[in-house]
Structures are given as structure tokens and as C-alpha cells.
Amino acid sequence: QVQLIESGGGLVQAGGSLRLSCAASGRSFSSYFMGWFRQAPGKEREWVASISSSNATYYPDSAKGRFTICRDNAKNTVSLQMNSLKPEDTAVYYCKARFETNNYWGQGTQVTVSS
Predict the structure, then answer these.
(1) Parallel, antiparallel, or unpaired for β 91-99 and 109-114?
(2) Positive or negative, the Cα torsion across 71, 101, 58, 40?
(3) How far, in Å, CA of 78 to CA of 22, rounded?
(4) Could you tell me the CA-to-CA distances from 22 to 43, 48, 95, 114 in Å, in that order?
(5) Span 31-61, pLDDT tens digits
(6) Residue 97 pairs with which residues in a beta bridge?
(7) Between vectors from CA 38 to CA 86 and to CA 23, what angle results, nearest 5°?
(8) 58 exposed, middle or buried (CB, 10 Å; 0-12, 13-18, 19+)?
């Protein structure tokens, strides 16, 4: 069982930045494929960023150039640096771990971007 705890959400003005963190349990963190997703009210959950065990990173077009995902295997954490935030980035942000055939989710952290 993998437990994920997100932190770092909050209220920020448009154009500002936030850094989200996700702390993971387990002795095999370096093998986890990690990702960030978000869900706005009334919308489906959408993918924001991913990072592999070999530190390859992946982003949808909506996040490229503004968001950066990184991991610290020594601390069992993955972070999401978000810059140039827009009101449409407002959502609950979730951390996800994929290990072997299982997916694990955190409880989410709220990000609100005011205009």
C-alpha cells in the first residue's frame, strides 16, 4: 500500500506561482511512476504532469512551459512548480503513484487562482 499526502495548495493571484509537494510512503519510491492531476468543479479529472523512475518528464500542452515536475528519491517526494498561473488553473490537484499494476491517489490539495 502506498500513501500519498499533498501539500502546498492555496490562493494566489493570476500570474503568480505555487509549488505543490507530494510525500509518498514505501521503500520502492524510486520505482514509482509519479504524476499530478487536477479536477475543477463540474469537470473531469485531467492530467497535468508525469515523471518516470528515470526522471523523464511529460506534460500536456496546457502545462508545457509553465509547470515543472521533479522528484527527490531521497525524500520520497515529488513536486510540481507552477508558474504564470491562470484562473483556469483553479482546481483540486492530486498526486498519483503507479507501482507495478496498482494506482494510488492522494487526497488532493486546493489551488485557487484569482483574477
Answers:
(1) antiparallel
(2) negative
(3) 5
(4) 23, 14, 6, 24
(5) 999 999 999 999 999 999 999 999 999 999 9
(6) 34, 104
(7) 110
(8) middle
The pLDDT value given to residue 87: 96
Q: Which has the closest alpha carbon to 84: 60, 59, 67?
A: 67
Q: Is the pLDDT at 93 greater than 90, yes or no?
A: yes
Instruction: Round to whole Å and give the CA distance between 4 and 7.
Output: 10
Q: What angle do CA 110, 70, 97 make, to 5 degrees?
A: 65
User: Cell 518516470 maps to which residue?
Assistant: 52
CA separation, residue 26 to residues 19, 57, 86 (Å): 23, 22, 34
Amino acid at the residue 21: S
Backbone torsions φ then ψ of 64, nearest 5 degrees: -60, 130
**Which three cell numbers mark 18?**
505555487
**Could you tell me whether strands 109-114 and 10-13 are parallel, antiparallel, or unpaired per DSSP bridges?**
parallel
Distance CA(13)–CA(112), nearest Å, equals 8
